[in-house]
TrEMBL record:
Organism of derivation: Tessaracoccus oleiagri
GO molecular function: kinase activity
InterPro entries, alphabetized: ATPase_NBD, HTH_MarR-typ, ROK, WH-like_DNA-bd_sf, WH_DNA-bd_sf
Organism superkingdom: Bacteria
Domain HTH marR-type: 9-63
Keyword Transferase: yes
This protein's name: Sugar kinase of the NBD/HSP70 family, may contain an N-terminal HTH domain
Amino acid sequence: MSAERPVRRQRDVLATILAHGPTSRSDVAKMLGLTQASAAKLVSELIEEGLIREGAAEPKGGRGRPRIPLHVIPDAWQIIALRIGPIQVTTTLVNLAGEVLESHREVHGGGQRALDVAFQGIERMQAAATARILGLGAIAGGWVEPATGVVRRFNDLSWWDVPLRDILREKVDVPVHVDSVVRAHANGDLVYGRAKGAPDFLHVFIGQLLQVAQVAESRVLVGPSGYGGDLSGWLVGDLDGTAHRAEGVLKDSVVLARAVQRGVIDPSGTYDDLTQIALEPGARGHAANRLLIERARLAGRLVADVAGFFSAQDVVVSSGVTATPQSIDALVNEFETRLVGLPRPRLHIDPDWRVPIGNSAAAMVVQRELLAPVPDEETSKDLES
């Protein structure tokens, strides 16, 4: 059976299984405050609609029925994800479970060329798709207005008031959703459970872009016309006590330039290349690793300061700053040191930094097409309690 779009409480059940992984009917009922009968009915409807399936029964200790886990059917839908960054365009084909099936990255050269590369990437993912396409999720740096899909300002590309959603709608015949990089990542945290169930948290993105998004009551907050969240101008204390603007010490391009100056990498090398060099044995690998660790320690200070400013209880950190295990350790250690004697938020970092980059734009489509609340007129169709 081909997958359908769920309604109301079905969406709550689907969201629970997506965020928490394989989940039993009884667990769904507990988490959503439903009766066992109501949960069972909703699960049966989602199975009939081709969105979830039962796994193999798991023996239960003692008496009682064995636990039967419920899984999202990964290829019930596939999603095309587009990320337009300051330097390169990444297009990805993602399934409903958030798994990356195909990915392509290409340096774009800025301006109109960024759109041309994006169109080519979208065509590549359309050709690779093996299931129905739920939609296209596009994320861009700078100031993005999600309600209109307009990129209001993206200085790195000299973009002003670019109607990205309308432009993309002319290229595809599926729903198109557009937002900023960091808000899409925060939404991905909700959909795929990276915030570990926390309803209120911050997402701090430290890569070529430096941004923060705030989530309250499981909703990503959006400023007026989508404005806000830029951390480029925040001051970061260097290891010798000197204060720097964050953009001057934390961007991928800054670390890459230092690597070129020190002879660690060729001028034509990319940040991805640098992260791979850091994993190599020998002097060059050690030098690359030191650069990434220095940057991660500064990032830990920034994250601690931002968390304190927002009084956050949970913080998710993503992108290039978490590219190696040593970088993650350095960031966490500096974060904890910065907050000694103070309330310390829980810190969440995906061990594979490419996962959030790959599926965050797709999560935006899943959220808005499958999980978003339905209009009031559909309430009567839903199962109460």
